[in-house]
Amino acid sequence: MSDLTSSNTSLEKFNYDNAIVRNFAYAVMVWGAVGMLVGLLIAAQIIIPSLNFNLQYSTFGRIRPLHTNAVIFAFVGNAIFMGLYYSLQRLCKARMFSDLLSKIHFWGWQSIIVLAAVTLPLGITTSKEYAELEWPIDILITIVWVVLAINMFGTIVKRRERHMYVAIWFYIATVVTVAVLHIFNSLELPISLTKSYPIYAGVQDALVQWWYGHNAVAFFLTTPYLGLMYYFLPKAAERPVYSYRLSIIHFWTLIFIYIWAGPHHLLYSALPDWAQSLGTVFSIMLIAPSWGGMINGLLTLRGAWDKVRDNVILKFMVVAVTAYGMATFEGPMLSLKNVNAIAHFTDWIIAHVHIGALGWNGFLTFGILYWLVPKLFKTELYSKKMANFHFWIGFVGILFYAIPMYWSGVTQALMWKQFTPEGVLLYPNFLETLLQIKSMHMIRITGGLFYYAGFVVMLVNLIKTIKQGSFIGEEAAEAPALEKNVMFEPIKGSIMKKHRLIERKPFQFTVLAVIVVLVGGLIEVIPTYLIKSNIPTIASVKPYTPLELQGRDIYIREACNSCHSQLVRPFRSETERYGEYAKAGEYVYDHPFLWGSKRTGPDLLRVGKKYPNLWHYLHMDDPTTVSPGSLMPRYSWLKEQILDVSNTEAKINAMRTLGVPYEQGYEKSANTDLQKQAEEIAADLQKQGIDVTSDREIIALIAYLQRLGTDIKNQQTGK
Amino acid sequence: MFSKYFVSVEWLNIFAIATMILFIITFAVIVIWAFKIDKKKLEEYNNLPLENKNSENKKFSI
User: Angle A223-237/A363-376 helices, nearest 10 degrees?
Assistant: First the structure.
């Protein structure tokens, strides 16, 4: 808070804090390089599994969330903060509320990223997509987010510009909604510093997770970037946004509708039909505000398209906004049940996500960096040619990434569903479908390499720019003070006049935005609580044995759910391949749910007793021995590592607290039961010539896999 | 399939209808509000990002 007031009472002199903007820009460059490199590695591992170098810490399941967390929360997250800290100060004509809070925010966020980079390869994960980090890090995220909120609202309150520009609206919606999403999705019961179970189970957990997952895309990857678009696109084009009216309608309708659309991630699942339909309807409606934003962005360049030819920043921004339009058209289409039936669990979704990530988030970030870095360092960009090269190779990279993934997705879906004239599956072996798309995965890597090469060229270009310039950490500015405190100014006049005043009043504005967001959120979440009391109990569904529970936690640690679903949809092609379709009552003891969202491998819901213990042992040790050509990595460390049973008691206690009906006092004898079951499996393996002892992790995992889906089979056979 | 579990919760259906009505009302209010804003004011708001142009040394832009 280092504002300097001049002797002239009407004009105040102050400095913008550019150091915090620069720091976040550096973080964007560093974490972007790391996150995308890990992305390339996991893309390569899908076709060459040995690229994990037989190390558990670099196996697909463990580093896939590292990639997603690094690009979403590190690369995109830091880019949001970079743009927010730059634009907010200028739109408010004020320095950030507190330099100390800015620094705490910066270092706090980087600490979270480092903790994620350490814990995820160690297998410390909740398994919930885009929310994998364990509870101590969740708490740290909450604290850092509150610091950001205080700093942001503090700046808005002490601003010298009465009207809050629309970009600030998007920032406010982001900060409050992400807080709500993060808190509700992270409600979990810790059993140790590195392990917790979510308070929700099965269907309920799935609904909360995808309410979070969908809205994390909405309020972390979309709304803050729209705020950045509304600030930096007019800056780069040197002209105001096409229609401010449209931006107002865009904002309110977008935040109202987005929160409702989450159920489209759970079509053909345990969600009630009315909620699925509501999610689909709102997803289709979402095209209108999304395209309102896209049209507003593109029409900002009306009469100035010649600039796009010469200005590489505008090229990046135009492609970004177009990619936003494409992704937000495709998203609603994917939420149509007939399209979703084909696309879900396939590479189609990977293509869709990357059009948004590489095109919208990536290219807008690059455009902003090319605009911002020369400004911060008072110099010109080192090389326009390099920037143009980056644009074209990045653009080609996106095409080489997305097109084969679309192709692959449709191929997968058609092969999964194809029947012979005799009515049996044409491709009963899942591996056939995987091998068919191998070449498309190779082309995808080429696209990724192109995109990454462009990123590296940008880094060189920006480093050279930084070296040739001189950084101005304190940028002088002046603006007249506002006459009185705008925060608590009384509201008078008609409803319309009042609304105009709300735009000037951060508190009232925030309350209104929260109400708009929460209406949808609550109506989506309330049924999740109703579900618990409406799911009929299936008598044969019992809690996991202690060994199975330990095995399940190894399944979570290795993130098997990254590649294997546990949700058989009610399609003949799925029931023929996997067995009886999934029942909501089967998941009542699943903390967390493990439905997965992608089938790189087959569904495992009914895998129990399908193969002998020996098959699982050999498959984990080296999948190609029982499944020639398999693209699954080896998990040979599971037969070496000793199962940690010291926490069994705590796990049983925690599960009972969450409603799993273990008998009182069972925790004391749980390890005895665990040992007994482990010895039975080990003896079975030893009989068949396998040299293994009952205390190994692989025994627990086999126990869990052999349990999957058997409760329903027991019900059918009357056991 | 699973939806049969919800047949007994009849009042849940009201959510779908209430939601649509709520959205239509909200949308109508926003549109009316947006079109009631004074044109001059809108222009002023729209130019806010460009106001700092002088403080950002223009010759360094690419």
Answer: 50
- Helix (H) / strand (E) element for A546: namely helix A546-557
Q: Could you tell me which residues come within 8 angstroms of residue A32 by beta carbon, excluding any fewer than 6 positions away?
A: A71, A74, A75, A365, A455
Q: Which candidate from B32, B55, B62 shows the least CB-CB separation from A381?
A: B62
pLDDT at A519 over 70: yes
Helix axes A506-534, A202-216, angle to 10 degrees: 150
Could you tell me which residues come within 8 angstroms of residue A213 by beta carbon, excluding any fewer than 6 positions away? A129, A130, A131, A262, A265
Rounded CA-CA distance A15/A21 in Å is 13
Handedness of CA A673, A674, A680, A683 (dihedral sign): negative
pLDDT, average across residues A628-650: 94
pLDDT(A356) > 50:
yes
Interface with chain B: mutation pick from A86, A162, A239, A248, highest number of B CBs within 10 Å: A248
By the CB < 8 Å criterion, does A161 face chain B?
yes
CA distance A687 to A695: 17
> DSSP labels for A556-610?
HHTTGGGT------S-HHHHHHH-SPP-GGGGTT-SS----SB-SS---TT-TTT
CA distance A155 to A163: 13
Angstrom distance (rounded) from CA A225 to CA A360: 8
Give the Cα separation of A290 and A286 in Å (integer).
6
Handedness of CA A458, A460, A462, A465 (dihedral sign): negative
Amino acid at A410: V
Other CB atoms closer than 10 Å to residue A267's CB: what's the count? 22
Residue A346 to residue A597: CA distance in whole angstroms:
9
What Rg do the C-alpha atoms of chain B give, in angstroms?
24
**Residue A260 banded pLDDT, cuts 50, 70, 90:** confident
Tell me the chain A residues in contact with residue B41 when contact means C-beta distances shorter than 8 Å: 500
pLDDT digit string (tens) for A611-625? 999 999 999 999 999
A370 or A302: which leads in pLDDT: A370
Kindly write down the DSSP assignment for every residue of A310-341, as one continuous string. Answer: H-HHHHHHHHHHHHHHHHHHHHHHHTSHHHHH
Distance CA A79, CA A360 (A): 13
Inter-chain residue contact A523 with B19, CB threshold 8 Å: yes
User: A484 pLDDT band (50/70/90 cuts)?
Assistant: low
H and E: helices and strands count for chain A: 28, 4
pLDDT tens digits for range B29-53: 888 888 888 888 888 888 888 876 5
B45 close to A (CB below 8 A)? yes
Structure tokens at A702: 């086999």
Asked if pLDDT for residue A490 goes beyond 70, the answer is no
Which amino acid is located at A355 in the chain?
A: I
Considering only CB atoms, which chain A residues are within 8 Å of B61? Answer: 371, 374-375
How much is the pLDDT for A495? Answer: 53
| Confidence tier at A202 by pLDDT (50, 70, 90) | confident
ipTM: 0.75
Structure tokens belonging to residue A76: 């995109």
Omega cis (within 30) before A428: no
Q: Indicate the pLDDT class of residue A3, thresholds 50, 70 and 90.
A: very low
For range A692-707, the mean pLDDT? 96
Q: Are A129 and A213 in contact (CB under 8 A)?
A: yes
The DSSP line for A663-700 is PTTHHHHHHHHHHHHHHHHHHHHHHTT----TTBHHHH
> What is the C-alpha radius of gyration for chain A, rounded to an integer number of angstroms?
27
- DSSP state letter for A74: I
Q: A378: which chain B residues are within 8 Å (Cβ-Cβ)?
A: 57, 60
Question: Which pTM was predicted?
Answer: 0.91
